[in-house]
Amino acid sequence: MGLKNNVLDSFALTGKVALITGCNTGLGQAIAVGLAEAGCDIIGVNRSEPEQTAQQVSALGRKFVSIRAELGSVAVIPGIISQAVAACGKIDILVNNAGIIRRTDALDFTEQDWDDVMNVNIKTLFFMSQAVAREFIRQGEGGKIINIASLLSYQGGIRVPSYTASKSGVLGVTRLLANEWAAKGINVNAIAPGYMATNNTDQLRSDEQRHQEILGRIPAGRWGEPDDMKGPAVFLASRASDYINGYTIAVDGGWLAR
Ligand code: NAP
Questions:
Q1: pLDDT in tens, 220-233
Q2: Which of 33, 45, 100 to mutate for ligand 1's pocket (most ligand atoms within 8 Å of CB)?
Q3: Reaction(s) catalyzed by this protein (predicted)?
Q4: What is the domain count for the chain?
Q5: Ligand 1 centroid vs 253 CA: distance in angstroms?
Q6: Which pLDDT band holds residue 4 (cuts at 50, 70, 90)?
Q7: Residue 208 falls within a domain, yes or no?
Q8: pTM given for the model
Q9: pLDDT recorded at residue 253
Q10: Ligand 1 pocket, 246 CB below 6 A?
């Protein structure tokens, strides 16, 4: 019984390289730090300089590479891949985390609010996955893709039509890509966060009535924290999840169980 047989070793990410979109704050930041704690080097793709994340990853003794890009357009993707490979030599894990939300009644919702959200949340997610999967295949060792979905991958929501469309799309596209790529050693899965305390939910949390309504429906009795993402992200990024394909795991304090 060598260490090789210890189940905890299958969670280790030593020597791996993860590319994470939108890791300057919120859930993406916690995922970056969590993966680094598991031994992974991090390539962060952000539109602003992710100074705090870079500092936290470096303090763990892991490499942090910053790539600046505006993910509202897919034109930036080839440049991201070439910079990532030039800096780290390879990519093992992709986390499609960057996402936005626009809240307006469906009757007043604009085409701009539709397109902006769909571009970042689903179009870029698909083409980033395509570009990184081509790299995985070129490298010949498979890889891991983790998409960040939402409760609105399962539910309709209210006043967020493009967000619901995009996140419902994330769940479907995660399944489709898993079907096509599982045999190539590429695991594609997603995490659906529940109500988490980040910028994304500022507006909801500042409305005391909505805040209390939501809190009252969460079986765990609290909003989620970014750190709640760490364990599930490390699991889906690691060998421990090698036989999980096309599944979306809710990290929601039980919200969907009700
Ligand atoms: P957040 O704090 O608003 O973080 C979103 C991240 O995406 C930020 O790093 C943001 O960068 C980046 N981003 C947005 N648009 C971008 C663009 N055009 N180009 C490059 N980067 C862009 O919210 P969060 O809660 O951590 O969200 C992370 C993911 O979780 C999103 O996909 C979100 O939909 C999902 N999610 C969140 C919750 C929740 O309750 N918080 C629930 C379900 C799903 P900037 O800082 O530069 O804007």
A1: 999 999 999 999 99
A2: 100
A3: 2-dehydro-3-deoxy-D-gluconate + NAD(+) = 3-deoxy-D-glycero-2,5-hexodiulosonate + NADH + H(+)
A4: 1
A5: 20
A6: low
A7: yes
A8: 0.97
A9: 98
A10: no
